[in-house]
Specification:
single chain, alpha/beta, Rossmann fold, Dihydrodipicolinate Reductase, domain 2, 2 domains, 5-stranded mixed beta sheet, 32% helix, 27% strand, binds nicotinamide-adenine-dinucleotide
Length: 245
């Protein structure tokens, strides 16, 4: 049995991961980490107090937690699946540094469909250099970061593969907000309980191509993260993502 610690266990994703682990024949829940300690559920709020036997950590928490979590995993030599988004350059560098010592799996989106969407966007960006590209993401009203990690990932794919030089723009507003040739614009919509929708629009003269993915349940991401945890425990140190899996 693979012994899993869940970081951010009291959150929406943490609970979904727990459900998937409990349903899965190869994994078992060992302990959790979150803001509030809960001895009944074996949830800690201080990394220094965790002395459990853990094979892998799955993290769906908050970017402010991730640096301490990396130190914890490095110190204890535990593989880390990092699903938290909104990671800045410093945190990403820390993850890369840590991957020299422990296996790290990081992606802004654990759904298989999004990874296929990424491939489609890559092809479209290569072929549609003279079209205007815009990324529109929609999420629930509790999401803290914007735009989503996935929107960035898709925009980066367009930027890398377009024959044009492109620059990010974040929505537009004002009397002088005309679209520029180099724009790759990301729009973040927030409302209700939308799980996650990502749409890439390529608009040309008299024709538009729209490629869209909608997640209908958060469990999609939990399944992906648990699969990544099982993959990661078989690996040596290194930085892994969905393509490796
Ligand atoms: N990579 C993916 O596929 C994917 C999919 C969904 C969500 N996410 C990301 O996962 C993260 C969590 O999403 P969610 O919807 O479960 O959010 P949430 O707000 O429901 O849960 C976050 C949890 O982290 C805990 N937390 C926050 N700050 C903390 C701190 N300082 N110390 C300890 N615990 C702390 C909160 O108490 C909460 O229980 C977000 O960054 C989200 O964008 C990633």
């Amino acid at each position: 049995m693979i012994k899993v610690m869940i970081s951010g266990i009291n959150g929406a994703m943490g609970r979904n991961v727990l459900e998937v682990i409990n349903e899965d024949k190869d994994t078992t829940y060992v302990c959790g980490f979150d803001k509030d300690e809960n001895k009944e559920e074996n949830i800690y709020n201080n990394f220094d107090n965790i002395n459990e036997d853990i094979d892998v950590v799955i993290d769906f928490s908050h970017f402010s937690v991730v640096n301490d979590l990396i130190s914890f995993c490095k110190k204890k030599n535990i593989p880390l699946v990092c699903a938290t988004t909104g990671l800045d350059e410093e945190i990403l560098n820390n993850l890369h540094d840590a991957s020299k010592d422990i296996p790290i799996f990081q992606t802004g989106n654990f759904s298989y469909g999004i990874n296929v969407l990424e491939k489609l966007v890559e092809t479209a960006a290569k072929l549609l250099g003279d079209f205007d590209a815009e990324v529109i993401e929609k999420h629930h009203n509790k999401k803290v970061d914007a735009p989503s990690g996935t929107a960035y990932m898709l925009a980066e794919k367009i930027k890398e593969n377009s024959p044009k030089e492109l620059e990010y723009k974040f929505s537009r507003y004002g009397k002088d907000a005309k679209r520029e040739e180099k724009d790759i614009t990301i729009h973040a919509v927030r409302g209700g309980s939308i799980v996650g929708t990502h749409e890439v629009l390529f608009a040309g003269a008299d024709q538009v191509i729209e490629i869209k993915h909608s997640a209908y349940s958060k469990k999609v991401f939990a399944y992906g993260a648990v699969k990544a945890a099982k993959f990661l425990v078989t690996k040596k140190n290194g930085y892994y993502n969905m393509k490796d899996m």
